[in-house]
Amino acid sequence: MARSRPPHESISHVRDDLPGDSLLGDDIRKNNSRRRPVPRRCVAAGPVVLVAVALVFFTRLLPGTLYGQEILPALPATDAAVEIPVQEWPMRPGPRTVRVLVHYPQGRLDAVRPETGLFLTLHNWGGTDCVGTANPATLAARCKCVALCVNYLQSGPRDSIEGPEPYDFGWLQALDALRALHWVWQGLRQQGIPFDDRRLYVTGGSGGGNVSLMANKLAPRTFAAVFDLCGMAKLSDDIAFDFPGGSSLNARYSRDPTSPNFLSRDRQELHFVGHPHHLARQKELGHQARIHVIHGANDDVCPIADAREMIANFETSRLPVVPVIVDDKRLDGKVFTSTGHALGDRTEIVLKVGGTGLEPGHPQALVRTGPTDFERRDDKVRYRTSRGEWVVSYRQGWPEGRFFADPPPRDDPDHLDPGYRLTGNGERLPLRTPADWEERRRQIIWNFERVAGEFPGPARRVPLEVETLEETREGGVVRRKLRYRTDHSSHVSAWLLIPEGDDQPLRPAALCLHQTNSVGKDEPAGLGGDPELHYALELTRRGWVTLSPDYPSFGEHAWDFAAHPEYASGTMKAIWDNVRAMDLLQQVPEVDPQRIAVIGHSLGGHNAIFTALFEPRIRAVVSSCGFTSFTRDDLPSWTGPRYMPRIATEFDNDVRKVPFDFPELVAAIAPRFFLAVAPTEDQDFDVEGVRHSIGAAMRVYHVDNADENLQALHPVAPHSFPRDARRSAYELLERALPPR
Q: In degrees, to the nearest 5, what angle opens at C-alpha 449 toward C-alphas 601 and 232?
């Protein structure tokens, strides 16, 4: 069936009047209204501090740089509060200091011994000093550590809850905490006081738990253990923009790129402490810290679902994580008293969970091996995000954080030839290695997003909340109708088909995407529409697990494109829905996660290509009647709300201005298996444009030594997916994804 060609509709602009503050969780409200007075021993440390503060305010600073180490105050002789200079906050340019509460064993610097460690204990969102975290005096005495509380950026309700700026959510806050840790670490060394820097620990409650996790991320070679007490795992959309969702927290960010509070995708990705790629980077760097995630099973302030996702990502990355989920069975009325956000006695929780690991000299003591990040003095702590790289430099010993944005890609007018790369001066060079291709591939994805909108990225995931609505068994096939959440505002319905029998423990799986058809998912699942397009049912009868979801606005997926400017196009909304469908497929016990394909016809055919562009878990693609080059197509037909309105609104329906074409998209899937089924009589997608696209993309597949993975079938037929072509496609898929 041919594509529907809706009239052009422009998308609405992003709203820039997002709500301001919202009520925070009970823990934060309680601690803000009942802050305990600072003990007498935590008062400022006299003239040393005054001199340091004076020097700070008379020192000029280049934007984003740290103050000179020479103005740092000396360590106090007894427990005290000290101001130290830290990195500038771009939201309020100029010199900045933070208050550090220092607690020694026995309250004195001269009580530090060779076995003494260092312990950061960080207050909650909205708190100050030592509120909402483990008591520093107790940690210092019982763990034989110098315990530090840090009034990191936006401490107190005035800045963290009521201020006009968005809540930092761990970036500069963690750098502040690490700066304080380095100040004590270096001060002890400079005075020649022996201590055990293998015993470096960090803990915090709620927002302090988030800062603890971020400190470990920004100093992955420094800590021996982390104790996260119900902290935020990521800057989710509901927290960032005050959307309805899993949390009542409001970080006051904006989606409007012109707003000073704009949240870029790069920043949102950085704030995801469980980001899979970033965890892999920590593993490469030699991360050792044992991460204790202590979270209430019914926490709805820092949602338990986010914590579980983070734990799963730690486990997948093989980082040492110890989940402590506080449910009814763990409540003891003394240490653990709540399954919600409060948890219980947060000091005793750290001591109980840490156990003998916090005792110096114990055979099971938690210690780090190798030098700290402070000693390494390098800038290897780097985290790639969608449009750049976050770098934490330790060149001067202390941490200094920067974001380096990628330069925009060159927009070469020839999008029909992906077989070259551009040099810095615009010279074309032939592709010779896969590394040559990666830069061109990055440019292709960037340019595609200029048209379809930004890909949401891993930090945007919400719990799937999968529901089984019905189940039937017929003809050797188990058919389940599922409903699952894809983002904060929508659910998708899909048919999951599983072969009966257990003769094959792990089966290949296929995401089956339907054409333009009011019945949506029912057609590939064999419940309606064209019998020649029941490919999900046919694959299941061959032993595959298949999942057929509705495209936005088809079937049961009611979707108002104009009401959701967070997606610049129906195309990007469909891509994200399909990525969440992949998340669901990987949870099906019968599925081999290394053998997942996507197959689609017409609308589903190009939807399959677009999804594979962003989803590396898709190992093979079959696109039936799904594309041709834009030069041989009706470009305005791509501009409806279901597709990519920017082709009209920003690129004037001019193929010379649209910054990508299908030869590049097919090439960007290399070296994975790709099959184009392009009938010779297709009146919607010209076969010659398909032939050219496949031929051009072959140059890239050849660089990857994967020529056999790019194939095309050209049945003599109109816009359809004929039976013989389907059978050939299934056979090619099975050869491309053989049993392991």
A: 105
Q: Are 200 and 207 in contact (CB under 8 A)?
A: no
As a three-state string, the secondary structure of 270-310 is HCCCCCHHHHHHHHHHCCCCEEEEEEECCCCCCCHHHHHHH
Scan for tokens 């017929």, then name that residue: 474
pTM: 0.84
Taking CA atoms, 606 is separated from 391, 610, 625, in Å, by 37, 6, 8
| Distance separating alpha carbons of residues 445 and 463, to the nearest angstrom | 27
Q: Considering Cα of 167, then 169, then 175, then 176, what sign does the dihedral take?
A: positive
Give me 305's structure tokens.
């679902």
pLDDT tens track for 5-59: 332 222 222 223 222 222 223 333 333 333 333 333 333 333 333 333 333 333 3
Distance CA(479)–CA(386), nearest Å, equals 38
DSSP characters over 113-173 = -TT-EEEEEE--TT--TTTTS--HHHHHHHTTEEEEEEE-TT-SHHHHTSSSSPP-TTHHH
User: What residues contact 343, with CB distance under 8 A and at least 6 apart?
Assistant: 205, 229, 230, 294, 296, 326, 336, 337, 349
Please enumerate in sequence order all residues whose Cβ is within 8 A of that of 347, keeping only pairs 6 or more positions apart, or say none. Answer: 134, 135, 138, 139
pLDDT tens profile 82-125: 999 999 999 999 999 999 999 999 999 999 999 999 999 999 99
CA-to-CA dists, residue 481 to 147, 363, 472, 542, 546, angstroms: 54, 54, 9, 20, 12
Q: Which residues pair with 262 in a beta bridge?
A: 254
User: Is residue 448 classed exposed, middle or buried when 0-12, 13-18 and 19+ CB atoms within 10 A define those classes?
Assistant: buried
Whether cis (ω within 30° of 0) applies to the bond prior to 671 is yes
DSSP string, 334-369: SSB--SSSS-B-HHHHHHHHHGGGGSTT-TT-----
398-405 sheet: strands from edge to edge: 381-385, 388-396, 398-405
Largest CA distance in the chain: 90
